[in-house]
Design brief:
Elements (H helix, E strand, L loop, with lengths): L19 E7 L14 H18 L9 E10 L7 E12 L3 E9 L5 E13 L4 E2 L4 H9 L4
Antiparallel strand pairs: 1-3, 2-5, 3-4, 4-5, 5-6
């Protein structure tokens, strides 16, 4: 099965499919010499959304409470991300394991145009013990609620 062209994907995912949204702005300093946001910037936008999501589901807002590490990243660019732009990152949990979970993202511009999509794999990590740890039951419930199903 082939994927639809990017121009046909603008309204592909209904809003409820990504239950957590986070606003981001493309800043002038984000631009590369080609006049669009540097290819690394969607990862920053995804990171900002993921951090806000983690603060919401854990109820913790200090840096030390980020108790996961990134095990994998995937980014797919569908359209150029230009300046100025107010966009939204949609976030949903795609998979939950024993000590890890995967998040899918989409960056949408005005009119809901899908610009970038991606995913990350997180592993809960006990920094003192130096190893992964099991996802606590209360966090698991919050992750399950954010699947967009």
């Amino acid at each position: 099965m082939t994927e639809p062209p990017a121009s046909d994907r603008a309204a592909e995912a209904p809003a409820h499919a990504f239950p957590f949204e986070y606003p981001v702005s493309v800043r002038f300093r984000d631009l590369d010499p080609m006049g669009h946001a540097h290819h690394s910037l969607p990862l920053i936008y995804f990171e900002e959304a993921r951090a806000a999501f983690w603060r919401r589901i854990t109820g913790r807002d200090d840096l030390e409470s980020i108790d996961y590490v990134i095990a994998g990243v995937r980014v797919r660019f569908l359209e150029r991300v230009r300046f100025p732009l107010s966009a939204k990152v949609g976030l949903r949990v795609a998979r939950i394991g024993n000590s890890s979970f995967s998040i899918e993202y989409e960056l949408r511009g005005p009119g809901g145009r899908l610009l970038v999509e991606g995913s990350t794999d997180q592993v809960l990590y006990d920094y003192d013990a130096g190893r992964s740890k099991v996802i606590p039951r209360e966090i698991r419930r919050e992750l399950e609620a954010a699947t967009g199903a």
